[in-house]
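Data deposition worksheet. Section B asks for the primary sequence of the deposited chain exactly as it was used as input, without tags or linkers unless they were present during the calculation. Section C holds the resulting structure in token form. Section D is free text for depositor observations; keep each observation to a single sentence. Incomplete worksheets are returned to the depositor.
Section A, Depositor: J.P.
Section B:
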Amino acid sequence: MPCAGLSGAEPPAPDQHPITKLLPIEIPDEVSSVSWSASRSDDYACAIQISFIPVREGKPQPAHPKTQVWLLKADGTVIPQTNVAQRIGFGNAGHNTEMDSYAYPRSATEDAFAVVVSIGERLFVERLRSDPK
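Section C:
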């Protein structure tokens, strides 16, 4: 499916829009946001993304804390990642931001109940849904 907003591209059907949930995890001067995203379409899976604080363009990135993520089913079992975490960087409005991205299979859209996020020495547990399957 082509990306919405590109010339000649059609927007995704309403039932294929990605689900994005900003998790209430912030660490001042280190992490700006943590988000969960999942898609109902066939060409996209699920991800947890940890965004570090943006740095002005041309400045070096600081050393970021080590991160780990565990996506859990309601029964407490772990949903395995589809690949190793990736450090991604992007620029916007004169700033560069790095993020750690954790990818999961499409089935996590329905199976994920909670997420455990480790950032440096800090540990966070957040529910992704209120109804256990």
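Section D:
The CA atoms of residues 6 and 125 lie 37 Å apart.
The helical segments are 108-111.
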